[in-house]
Design goal:
Length: 505
């Protein structure tokens, strides 16, 4: 029978627990302070200074830790490795520029992951490997010069000089494994990155793998130089706080991943960020081998974004448990909310449960939100009609306990039977796409304009308002294989009897 869910305790006991666990304050004690001017590190932007910078970092670390001040100038460098106890402080006017020669970069010998798609590079401009009490701060800039670097990698591959064994022949570009990220921090603890201008990676932007006690704050990230340009990627990290960041990325702005079967993203807090993306605003679970628990997202602005404002997924056998997303304002965004439980990686079943989505507003345009972008999201195989929000499990494995509260979504409408015709009597024939890559457009055209809900146990809509800018022939809600549905103070245009549809099983 239909009954209400008590999810409010989840947000108190689980999701907010991590706030107690977050560390606050400086991570580095200043036993020694050096600066690049006194060390005569080349800063003309043309002389490679990798060795000089690395020796300075090593010196600070070997002397008990402290700060290396990078004074104004342009520092051309390949891969540099942060060491324990070191804060790299970029003064106003200091620019670290990534070399455009692929041979100036090297990789960390990281633990193998469960994923086999070869999309997680261990190469980066700035790296840390099993370091503690480290930071990158200041008002300076780190510029990866990613476009030129990626094109050089491509050229060397085709010349047979530096072969990319995973070269993407379909898309005619180097693989993600062959292109350096801007940051790659591995198994590091007590990390602070703040107040910087960060831009132009050849691959992902800021990538953190198996790290703990991580603070990212007041960062301006522009990562649109090349493909797969995520903003921030958090992979199986614990006690993470991301706040007051502005991100403009060609791929997902903030993306949580779990590549390791025995690890998870736990106690992650994302607050007060402004996100623009050719993919999704906040997304996690495309790599979902371990899990995600106690994730809190609040006070987020998403705009001019091709895919979803919020995407929460488990498709590789991992778990998602205790997630709270609140106070999100999404403008000109292709999709509002996407929740997906799939099974693309073997026989192991994952789970997606105890999710709270509240105080969310979104306006969905009729046209692509990223029409004017240099790098746009991939074209869909059919007319890009407005997609509804989707909450979909798979047969025999339902999403559990979802609360949507204080939701206001404006859809453009304009769907007609001539361009988006999936009749209700065929709704149960929509392909399950059990092993497919999770994306808001994965099911093709759908028979509803507001919410499409399938294979869910326990879902509550409380104070949910759906609006249309123009007419749409489809109903607002379609439910298939869904039980324990509660709808309170739900409003939408049209006759209630024609706007809520349950597919018979």
């Amino acid at each position: 029978m239909v009954r209400s869910m008590n999810l409010h305790s989840i947000s108190i006991k689980g999701i907010l627990l991590f706030l107690i666990c977050l560390f606050i304050g400086d991570n580095v004690s200043y036993a020694i302070i050096l600066n690049t001017t006194k060390l005569k590190v080349a800063n003309d932007g043309t002389t490679l200074c990798t060795l000089q910078l690395q020796r300075a970092i090593d010196r600070v670390s070997n002397n008990g830790g402290g700060r290396l001040d990078v004074t104004p100038g342009k520092y051309l460098t390949g891969s540099i490795m942060l060491k324990s106890g070191v804060e790299l402080h970029l003064m106003n006017g200091a620019v670290i520029q990534g070399s455009t020669n692929p041979k100036d970069y090297y990789s960390i010998n990281a633990k193998p992951t469960a994923d086999r798609r070869n999309d997680n590079s261990n190469i980066a401009l700035v790296m840390a490997d099993n370091a503690e009490n480290i930071g990158i701060t200041g008002n300076g800039t780190i510029d990866g010069q990613g476009l030129i670097l990626a094109l050089n990698i491509d050229s060397l591959h085709h010349k047979g000089v530096l072969i990319d064994t995973h070269y993407n022949t379909r898309r005619m570009r180097p693989s993600e494994q062959a292109r350096p990220k801007l940051f790659y921090f591995y198994k590091s603890n007590n990390v602070t990155v703040s107040d910087l201008q960060l831009k132009n990676s050849a691959c992902w932007g800021l990538s953190f793998d198996l790290c703990s006690n991580l603070i990212l704050k007041k960062l301006n990230i522009t990562n649109r130089a090349y493909w797969n340009n995520d903003g921030i990627d958090i992979d199986d990290c614990q006690h993470v706080k991301i706040s007051d960041c502005e991100i403009n990325s060609a791929d997902d702005a903030i993306c949580l991943k779990s590549y390791h079967e025995n690890s998870s993203c736990v106690n992650v807090d994302i607050q007060r960020c402004s996100l623009r993306s050719s993919a999704s605003g906040v997304k996690f679970g495309t790599a979902s081998w371990g899990g995600f628990k106690n994730i809190h997202v609040a006070d987020i602005k998403v705009f001019d974004t091709f895919r979803s404002a919020i995407a929460i997924e488990s498709v590789d056998g991992g778990y998602v448990d205790s997630v709270c997303v609140e106070r999100v304002n999404a403008i000109n965004t292709g999709n509002a909310i996407f929740l997906r439980l799939g099974q693309r990686a073997g026989d192991k079943k994952g789970c997606l449960k105890n999710v709270i989505l509240r105080d969310i507003t979104c306006t969905v345009p009729f046209e692509r939100p990223d029409n004017n972008y240099d790098l746009r999201g991939p074209e869909v195989d059919f007319f890009h009609n407005p997609f509804p929000s989707s909450i979909c499990g798979i047969p025999g494995n339902n999403i559990q306990n979802v609360l949507l509260e204080n939701i206001n979504i404006v859809y453009p409408g304009r769907a007609t039977k001539g361009m988006a015709y999936v009749p209700l009597w065929r709704a149960d024939k929509i392909d399950e796409q059990i092993k497919s890559y999770p994306e808001f457009s994965m099911f093709g055209e759908l028979p509803s304009w507001g919410f499409y809900v399938r294979h869910v146990s326990g879902i509550t809509f409380n104070n949910v308002k759906l609006s249309l800018a123009d007419k749409d022939f489809r109903p607002a809600f379609v439910f298939e294989d869904v039980d324990k549905v509660v709808m309170k103070a739900v409003s939408f245009p049209g006759d209630k009897n024609r706007q809520i549809y349950f597919v018979d099983k």
